[in-house]
Design brief:
Blueprint lengths: L7 H11 L13 H7 L5 H5 L5 E3 L5 E3 L11 H5 L15 E5 L13 H5 L5 E4 L7 E5 L18 E5 L8 E2 L1
Antiparallel strand pairs: 1-2, 3-6, 4-5, 5-7
The protein binds iron/sulfur cluster (SF4) (3 copies).
Length: 173
């Protein structure tokens, strides 16, 4: 039974706090399991990253923040790490891709193509809608999850999310 003494706005705020936070993005070539099992939280990977996108997150474990830039897959973080966390020999640095939310300006009819201009692999394509605005969509098979499209977006509409090891044909929206 709902508690009428709680202000509805406060109730929805409390509900929001109980929702699970999104899983952190670990540095490339490092799985979440290896980070939690073997990372000694020394910060060497963060210090070595020339893009400044690695920071200590929850528990002091390294997380990627694309607010500062993109991953160039230089491998510097992996080479600097003294523990068995990274595997530069793995086939794919990570399984993730960009996702564009409907808060995107272009999807609301405002001209913007900043994400497409920033993408080094041409993974963002605009389709002309019949009578509607042109929409950017991410081709998950071309997206490397580098995050270059995140910080240029004036709407804060781009996030990089886990592709669940299924990088392939369908668009990630
Ligand atoms: S691969 Fe290079 S750019 Fe990417 S997180 Fe590691 S050090 Fe930074
Ligand atoms: S995350 Fe994907 S869509 Fe965004 S810039 Fe990198 S390759 Fe392009
Ligand atoms: S940069 Fe952001 S607002 Fe602009 S088209 Fe891309 S997702 Fe939309």
């Amino acid at each position: 039974m709902p508690d009428d003494r709680i202000d509805p706005g406060r109730r929805s705020l409390l509900r929001g706090r109980l929702r699970r936070a999104p899983a952190p993005i670990r540095p490339p070539y490092a799985s979440d399991r290896r980070v939690l099992d073997a990372c000694v939280r020394c910060g060497a990977c963060a210090d070595a990253c020339p893009e400044g996108i690695i920071a200590a997150g929850d528990g002091g474990y390294p997380e990627v923040d694309f607010g500062n830039g993109e991953c160039t897959f230089c491998g510097g973080c992996a080479e600097a790490c003294p523990a068995p966390v990274f595997d530069l020999a793995q086939e794919t640095p990570w399984f993730q891709a960009a996702r564009i939310a409907d808060t995107c300006f272009a999807r609301m009819g405002i001209v913007c193509q900043s994400c497409r201009d920033a993408c080094p692999t041409g993974a963002i394509n605009f389709t002309i809608g019949w009578g509607g605005p042109s929409r950017p969509d991410v081709d998950a098979s071309a997206c490397t999850g580098c995050g270059a499209c995140v910080s240029p977006c004036p709407a804060g509409a781009v996030t990089v999310v886990s592709a669940g090891g299924q990088k392939g044909t369908s668009n990630v929206r």
